[in-house]
Design a protein that fits this description.
By secondary structure, this protein is of the alpha+beta class. Helices cover about 25% and strands about 25% of the residues. It has one domain: HAD superfamily/HAD-like (Rossmann fold, 3-Layer(aba) Sandwich). The chain has 2 helices and 4 strands. GO terms for molecular function: phosphatase activity.
């Protein structure tokens, strides 16, 4: 997913980047994350991405931040 900061919007409405591109995820992601959390899994995000700040912002705006105990996102 390419994303240009800043990102705006609030769920459940579509999020948009600064160019008006709608940002979305696979519908099953929230239920999968919740299921893993309920089963006691410790989750982490590890990524090397061109826009690390946008990746962190999207995790937060999608409401997934609390699912991840560790977040290692680096520009690359």
């Amino acid at each position: 997913m390419k994303c240009s900061l800043p990102v705006s919007g609030y769920l459940p409405n579509p999020l948009e980047d600064s160019k008006g591109t709608k940002l979305k995820y696979c519908d099953q992601v929230p239920s999968i994350l919740k299921d893993l959390e309920e089963k006691g899994y410790v989750l982490a995000v590890v990524s090397k991405i061109s826009n690390a700040k946008a990746a962190r912002q999207l995790i937060d705006l999608f409401g997934w931040d609390h699912f991840f105990s560790f977040k290692e996102i680096y520009p690359g």
